[in-house]
UniProtKB/TrEMBL annotation:
It comes from Camelus ferus (Wild bactrian camel). The gene is GLT1D1. Keywords: Glycosyltransferase, Transferase. Residues 220-374 form the Glycosyl transferase family domain. This is Glycosyltransferase 1 domain-containing protein 1 isoform X1. GO terms for molecular function: glycosyltransferase activity. It comes from the Eukaryota. SUPFAM superfamilies: UDP-Glycosyltransferase/glycogen phosphorylase. Gene3D superfamilies: Glycogen Phosphorylase B (3.40.50.2000). It holds the Pfam family Glycos_transf_1. InterPro entries: Glyco_trans_1 (IPR001296), Glycosyltransferase_G1 (IPR052622).
Length: 403
């Protein structure tokens, strides 16, 4: 089966795989999706081939690739970015909504029309929440009956050997790039077919300049607020920078560390320039998945300042790692963060600082949201439940639509 996943922050491209050394908040929220989908498909006995979606400049190139690899089916992450590439090629496919497709692309006439056509051909579509499902059904009524809800399954594995103090002091951080990989899988249970899965992903580039962290504080007295995202405008990583920098000048033991790969080169230069002149704010490129989880585990809190989200894996992973979450109050975040229960929601930079100060000074609140967040993730974001769902959906790509 051909499985294409485009993640928009998910939101940029395709997943279904885990580049050998990368997991970034984008690829983290990226890589997490990539890896989980790949693992679920492997468990079902499929083969997965990953390609950079931007390698294809025309429909004929995609058609030639499908023919050359004898691909039989596909899974696209992101209705527009991924799904549109699969139309008209005669292979069955499913799609997974990303976030920007339903929050932003849907408001652009031509993209809306294209996505409607994609859903006409898709055998199924997956939404992370009931709200996302309702939005899709309202926009494309003809898709009713083929949209399923499955929240992201979360699994974390921090690197036990990770040295937090060294991380805080280092000034030359290694950069990694994802590698294209192909995975072979055997026959699907209950069938005689060997289904070939091909996944496309977008190669995310690391930051071009040397990264300097050099947080010269005792780790015991630090409060690091970690913002994980691909550097693109919809993630709005600069939203809190001025307010946080002012707070840092009042309280030098608080830092904001932005972790993420370059997605938009022009915007990345803007972020780099802003961070350089902002006391208390640091910028780090993509990291190995296990190392990133270790950084999350050692941070005081994880922050999300996105303008648009489907379902933030960074938030869910922080909850799983028992780290407090402060998230911008947007629908995608509010769907997983209940204010003062599983985390804190803010509506502007000033409210963020107010809530962050409260969290620092109120250990009881910190303990409560951490415990509730952990319980929420383990109850509603089961890795096994996600695997079972995708195992079922993959079987819908076998045979003809009438079967």
């Amino acid at each position: 089966m051909l499985f294409q996943s485009m993640f928009q922050d998910e939101e940029q491209a395709v997943i279904c795989t885990e580049p050998a050394t990368s997991h970034v908040p984008y690829r983290v929220r990226l890589c997490t999706r990539q890896r989980s989908h790949r693992d679920h498909l492997e468990a079902a006995g499929h083969e997965c081939i990953l390609k950079d979606a931007f390698d294809f400049e025309s429909p004929s190139e995609i058609a030639n690739f499908i023919k050359a690899e004898s691909l039989e089916a596909a899974l696209a992450l992101h209705l527009y970015r991924g799904g549109r590439l699969l139309r008209g090629h005669g292979i069955p496919f499913g799609v997974i909504f990303g976030g920007t497709d339903l929050n932003e692309d849907v408001n652009q006439g031509e993209k809306n029309k294209v996505m409607g056509k994609v859903l006409e051909e898709a055998r199924f579509a997956v939404a992370f929440t009931e709200s996302m499902k309702e939005t899709a059904q309202t926009q494309w009524p003809h898709a009713r009956g083929k949209i399923f809800v499955q929240s992201q399954g979360i699994s974390t594995a921090p690197n036990a050997a990770f040295n937090w103090n060294s991380f805080l002091q280092r000034s030359d951080m290694k950069k990694h790039r994802g590698n294209e990989i192909a995975l072979r899988m055997g026959p699907v249970e209950g069938t005689s077919e060997n289904l070939l899965l091909a996944c496309f992903y977008v190669q995310l580039h690391t930051l071009g300049n040397d990264e300097v962290l050099e947080i010269n504080q005792s780790a015991d007295h630090l409060h690091v607020f970690l913002l994980i995202c691909g550097l693109r405008r919809v993630k709005d990583p600069l939203y809190l920078v001025d307010a946080f920098s002012e707070w840092h000048q009042e309280e030098p033991n608080v830092y904001m560390v932005i972790v993420g790969p370059e997605v938009d080169p022009v915007f990345t230069r803007e972020v780099e320039a802003k961070v350089k002149r902002s006391p208390g704010v640091r910028l780090v490129g993509e990291m190995a998945q296990e190392d990133l989880h270790a950084v999350v585990k050692n941070s005081f809190a994880v922050v999300n300042s996105s303008v648009s989200e489907g379902m933030s894996a960074a938030i869910l992973e922080a909850m799983d790692l028992e780290v407090p979450v402060l998230a911008r109050n947007i629908p995608g975040n509010a769907a997983v963060v209940t204010h003062e229960v599983t985390g804190l929601l803010f509506s502007d930079p000033q409210e963020f600082v107010q809530l962050a100060k409260r969290l620092v000074s109120d250990p009881a609140l910190e303990k409560e949201v951490v415990a509730n967040g952990r319980d929420y993730v383990r109850m509603y974001h089961s890795w096994q439940a996600e695997r079972d769902t995708y195992g079922h959906l993959v079987r819908m790509l076998e045979g003809s639509p009438e079967d």
